[in-house]
Amino acid sequence: MAVMARLARSVHVASIKARRKGRTYVTHLLRRTYREDGKVKHQTLGNLSHLPPHVIELIKGSLLGQIYVPVSEAVRVVRNLPHGHVAAVLGTARKMGLPQLLASRPSRQRDLAMAMIVSRVLAPSSKLATCQALAEETQLTSLGETLKLGEVEEREMYEALDWLVKRQGWVEKKLARRHLRDGCLVLYDLTSSYYTGSHCPLAEFGYNRDGKKRFPQIEWGLLCDGDGCPVAVEVFKGNVGDSETLSSQINKVRKRFGVERVVLVGDRGMITEARIREDLAPVEGLDWITALRAPAIQALAQQGVIQLSLFDERDLAEITSPDYPGERLIACRNPLLAAERRRKREELLEATEKELSKVAAATRRKRSRLAGKEQIGLRVGKVLNRYKVGKHFKLRITDEGFEYERDMRKIAAEADLDGIYVIRTSVPVARLCAEDTVRTYKGLSAVERAFRSLKTVDLKVRPFFHRLAERVRGHVFLCMLAYYIEWHMRRSLAPLLFDDEEPEVAESLRASAVSPAMRSPSALRKAQRKRTDDGLAIHSFQSLLKNLATINQNRLCLNPISDGSGGLPEITTFTEPTTLQRRALDLLGVSLAL
After folding, report:
1. Which element (helix H / strand E) includes 6?
2. Which of 28, 198, 212, 378 gets the highest tally of CB atoms within 10 A of its CB?
């Protein structure tokens, strides 16, 4: 046996180079080296030059003592989990310091809260489904392993949610320190989400923005900085009016966040005359920007304050009225909006006339004739309530019949104000000129985008799988923190998304603040070609996350080798990112190894 081992060690592959006629040749010979009469001699056992280079290398390694086995026998894939989207979202959250915002010290509750927030961005689902997606046995992504959560129970998820909602005030205060400064702009708006359960004390019937009139609802207001970055959220009962929530937000900004001087921006249903008189005007350092309702604009037109001649040269003009002392009024006229309103009004009038003609015909038919003021009035009322243009018709209802015609005077009076809206503000002109004031009010669209993302497109705040009021509040707060991550990710990933990465350029191309928003040339090119200037595919936020999810985290185990010398421990590798995926990770400033 020892002789055979010595013999094996004496056999080797010799590579000999030779140059003939200007060309270099390499000959690979299998040789045995031995000693005879005190001299080293070589015996050629065979010529290997005809073999492929990789086979020759295998023979060399085998003669040197290396052991080769098939990959299927040597390597065992222990687990393969989607990881790229986890690295993108969790890496961004850590880069922003979100764990430290939740709590300065690491804890099980903080890790579980982070898991729920990140999961809401990755794949919105119930707490039970999230728990199953994180548990070792049923995990769907690498998130649970990355956070080292181990076994996760549903009870722990609810305890972490309770822990999070108790810290909401502290977290929002830290966010305010980051994003709000003295004299800053604050955007505020309110929305509602319908509730399909029956035992939540917050669920009440009210003005339902989702069009689900048969269900109670929960209202929640979002507070953002001037760029639309979310800072705070508050949940209200479903029957609370928009303007009734304003005073709590003022106290939150001034007292809890310590911002004394602030400009509050809200829509015409939020900052009403009563709220200005009672909550805003008496407070020093608190300014506001809102818009007038249609009846107030009609009153100004009747007084002659608003006339079409104001817009002969420009699409906006500052006006004054004794009804608004110490305030600035900026009248704006958008021709495109005016044309759209004329079109919609004409469609509604025609649809109403079509239905009213059916009612009139029913009063003239011979069989089952519709008669009686009360019965005719009920049918007419249903039509008018459906299309909401009853004020533009003259109606004559008798016991025997029904007649109608358009009220051309009222239609003409309303048409004169088509496309006209009036911005109302207490901010002095030295601080914000008329154009900047209009732009600031239009900035409320950032809150509307947040609502779309939170309610439908990305984060899906409903359905509410909770009955307790505090857990509903915790759920909405958790969704807001998820949008906080998404907001920052969208800004970083804008070159790869359909989002406009050059909003300043787009704004400079607008003729005025009243004209419709425009997209920058780079955004138009992306939308047309569906590719970036360097040829990468353009994505939506969700489709880019799905693309990143194809980067897997692979746990590999090397099997013991046949001679019993044992194998290596488990190793973790990642799928090689594509050019697009590498660009996305670089834009976010994160790596796969978290």
Report:
1. helix 2-10
2. 28
* Whole-angstrom distance, CA of residue 177 vs CA of residue 282: 26
Indicate the pairing of strand 262-265 with strand 286-291: parallel
Q: What angle do CA 554, 537, 547 make, to 5 degrees?
A: 25
Q: Please count the residues of the chain.
A: 594
pLDDT tens digits, one per residue of 484-529: 999 999 999 999 999 999 999 988 888 889 988 889 999 999 999 9
Tell me the C-alpha distance between 392 and 376, whole Å.
Answer: 19
Task: Please name the fold of domain 170-301+427-467.
Answer: Transposase Inhibitor Protein From Tn5; Chain A, domain 1 (3.90.350)
Residue indicated by tokens 């779309």: 452
Q: Are 29 and 10 in contact (CB under 8 A)?
A: no
How is the chain split into domains, by residue range? 2-66, 170-301+427-467, 336-415, 488-588
Q: In the beta sheet, which residues pair with residue 263?
A: 185, 287
119 half-sphere exposure, CB direction, 13 A CA radius: 28
Residue pair 404/393 in contact by the 8 Å Cβ criterion: yes
pLDDT in tens, 149-201: 999 999 999 999 999 999 999 999 999 999 999 999 999 999 999 999 888 99
User: What angle in degrees, to the nearest 10, is found between the helix axes of 469-493 and 84-95?
Assistant: 100
> Which among 415, 445, 438 has a CA at the least distance from the CA of 338?
415
435-451 pLDDT tens trace:
999 999 999 999 999 99
Q: What's the pTM value of the predicted model, to 2 decimals?
A: 0.85
C-alpha separations of 379 from 358, 373, 382, 396 in Å: 10, 10, 5, 13
